[in-house]
Request: fold
Amino acid sequence: MKVLLIFPLTLLATMGFAQPDADSPVRQNAISITLGYNQFKDENLHPKVFHGLLIGSAFRHTSIRKNLSEYTAGLKLSAINTDYEEFPSAAGILILGKYRYLFAITGHYNLKWYLGPAADLQYGTNAYFNWDESHLYFANYLSAGIGSRVSCSMSNKTFDFNLDIPLISVLCRPDYNRQYKIDDMTFGGVIKNLASNPEAAFPDKNFYVKTGLEMKFNSKSGKTRSVGYQFMYHYVHAGNGNPYQNIENSVTYYFIF
Reply:
C-alpha cells in the first residue's frame, strides 16, 4: 500500500522537476468561480439520488513553453436533496487538487495537441442530516492518470478542450457497516476518518471522466478572461462498500492575470 501511495506523489515530483525548454515560458494565473448542477448516489447510505446546487472557486497556474505545466487547487460546495425532501437536506464539501505535465504531441500555430501524465486529488465529505447524523460519507482519492488538451486559436479567441482519466488510485471509503459506531466529529477525528480504509484502485474501482471546453477572450477593458463548461462522471466501488456515482455539469468564469 505504501508503494502505491508513493507512486502518485513520485509522479507529481517527477513532473514538477521536468527539464525546462530553452524558450521563456508563457505563464498565466487564473482565479475561477464555478456554478453547476450536481447529482450523485451513495449506496452506502441508500440508493436514492441526491441533486442540487454546486458552487466552487479555484486558483490555477499554467506555464507553457513547448510543453504545458499546470496545477489547480480549489474548493467545492454542494447543497442537495432527494425528491422526497425539501431543499436543502444534505451538504457536501470537497478540497480539490490537480497537476498536469502535458507534452506537445503535434500541431502548429492555431491548432495544438498536448498529452501527458496527470495527478488528481479529491478530499472531502458529504453530510446527510435527515438520514444519518452520526456518520460522514466520502469517496476520496489520490490518482495518477492521463491528461489531454486540444487548443485551437481563432481570431482573438482560444478554445481549449480538456480530458482527464485515471490509471491508478489510492481510494478511501468509510466502513460499510457502522450501525453501532459513532464517528469522531472532532477536527482531528474528521481529518483522520476521511483518509481511512486506503486501498489500491484501478479504473474498475475508481473511474472518472473530467472533460470540458474553455474559451479565452479579451474583455472590453482589454484584460484576458475565460468562460468554460465542464462535465464530470465519477464511479467508485471500493472493496468494503457499495457503489458511489457522481455526475456534475457546471460553468466557470476565469479571471486571468
The chain has one domain: 2-16+32-256. Residues 2-16+32-256 form a domain with the Lipocalin fold (CATH 2.40.128.100). DSSP finds two helices and twelve strands in the chain.
